[in-house]
Structures are given as C-alpha cells and as structure tokens.
Design a protein that fits this description.
- Belongs to the small Tim family.
- The protein is an all-alpha fold.
- About 80% of the residues lie in helices and about 0% in strands.
- The chain has one domain: Orthogonal Bundle (Helix Hairpins), CATH 1.10.287.810.
- The longest helix is centred in the middle third of the chain and has 35 residues.
C-alpha cells in the first residue's frame, strides 16, 4: 500500500482522543446502556435458573399443573420485586435531583 493510501485509511479511523466532548458523552451513554442490557440479561438468566431449579422436577414434553403454577408464581414474584426495586430507585434518584 502506498503512503498516501495508508494516510487516507488511517485518517478515517477515529480514536478516543479525536472525539469531541459531545461524541465522548454519547459514546459513554451507549456503553452504559449496553452494560445495563447485559446486566439485565444476566439477571433474567439467573432468575430463570432459580425458577427452573425450584419448580421443574423432571423435564418432559409437557408441564404438569403443579409445575406450571410454580413457574407462574415464581415469575410473578420476580416481576413484583423488580417493579418495587425500580420504583425505589426512581424515588431515590428523584430525591437526589431536587
């Protein structure tokens, strides 16, 4: 590759040092959002494992009514807990912003 072609290829790449404050803030926001998604996904997987271990004795082609009720209750508890925690965090953030 010729030197001029290398310069052109290199000039299209941006580094963190080349980013302006707005670009850097946007990048940080995107990274934080991706981290939150990853954390949520990990929590869901953990929750699924807990409910599976608690409710499913022997996997089969169909769920019996006891297993189905157990899984439903487990999911309901997870949703209720998540909503309560989210609400509490929102209250804390709101109080901190005042």
């Amino acid at each position: 590759m010729r030197a001029s072609a290398r310069r052109k290829a290199g000039s299209s790449r941006r580094t963190m040092a080349d980013l302006g404050e707005a670009d850097e803030a946007e990048l940080q926001r995107l990274v934080a959002a991706e981290q939150q998604k990853a954390q949520f996904t990990a929590q869901v997987h953990h929750f699924m494992e807990l409910c599976w271990d608690k409710c499913v004795d022997k996997p089969g082609n169909r769920l019996d009514s006891r297993t189905e009720n157990c899984l439903s209750s487990c999911v309901d508890r997870f949703i209720d807990t998540t909503l309560a925690i989210t609400s509490r965090f929102a209250q804390i953030v709101q109080k901190g912003g005042q």
